[in-house]
Known about the structure:
- There is one protein chain.
- The protein folds into 2 domains: 21-139 and 293-308, 3-Layer(aba) Sandwich (Rossmann fold), CATH 3.40.50; 142-292, Rossmann fold (3-Layer(aba) Sandwich).
- It is an alpha/beta fold and 313 residues long.
- It has 11 helices and 9 strands.
- It has helices at residues 21-37, 63-74, 95-103, 119-126, 142-156, 175-185, 214-220, 242-249, 253-256, 279-282, 289-308, and strands spanning 52-57, 78-83, 109-114, 130-136, 163-167, 189-193, 209-211, 223-226, 264-266.
- Helix 5 crosses helix 6.
- It has a 5-stranded parallel sheet with strand order 7-6-5-8-9, sandwiched between helices. Strands 2-1-3-4 form a 4-stranded parallel sheet, with helices on both faces.
Amino acid sequence: MKNKNNVFSRRHLLGLEGFTGREITHILDTARSFREVIERPIKKVPTLTGITVVNCFFEASTRTRISFELAEKRLSADPVNFSSSGSSVSKGETLRDTVRNIEAMKIDMVVIRHASPGVPLFLTKVLDAAIINAGDGSHEHPTQGLLDIYSMREKVGDLKGKKVCLIGDIKHGRVPLSNIYGLQALGAEVGVCGPPTLMPRFIDDVGVKVFTRIDEALEYADILNVLRIQLERQKGGLFPTLREYHDQYGITMARLERYKKDWVIMHPGPINRGVEIETAVADGDYSIILDQVTNGVAIRMAVLYLLSGREID
Ligand code: CP
């Protein structure tokens, strides 16, 4: 199925770990041509006609689910949406049986979001379809990493030597690792900042600077990717109160304006306004949060296209 001009050596997209700068640049450059397509009055190309993609969401999602479905429609693929609620999963059907039954209906690609790290890898062992990880627990969310990096590159150009800091819950999110691997592959320097209770044990092994004081992070970086505080984990006592979190780590205009920097402020969403980021920052001039969402469709078009092996006419 691979065409000589669509030279992408990967069969699946499970994460950005191990990707080279060249591979990431190829995806970003491909996305740039699709970014132009989604600005047209007729936002559709015939590239993936006849390809069926199943979007399997075992966890809640707004942006990623809609973005993949739109990307598939813009490429003229046939999307089918599966969500675990209301499915035979509630009758005890296993994940393996569920996905093998879906594949028996002759599908080509599976986009999977699941709470358990490793589920996309597991699917590569039981299915012939191409697998795209749309977020697996606290592991990776590669298309989010790619759209974040695309948005940074669009704003500041070449990322080599640029300093980016991820702020907040580094331990439970799936966005940090994909950002770290992707940015490092492009030569960026990466920091992380948050309470020690929200830092994973392996953080010293991934080549990032670790800050526990927000002022050190703001001194270090020009690009801040602010992460969602997962309110569902607040019961676990990982930090005293949301108000205290906001006081210590919240990104506010007052904090940013202590530095003479042309900030780039990002957030993968969904946002807790007034907790990790204040509204004046989220909706202000430094923010590129909605650009990230728009760019996400182009990134997902690029990933679907590259994994398909099809050619652009
Ligand atoms: N950024 C992100 O993954 O958002 P959703 O959970 O809404 O898909």
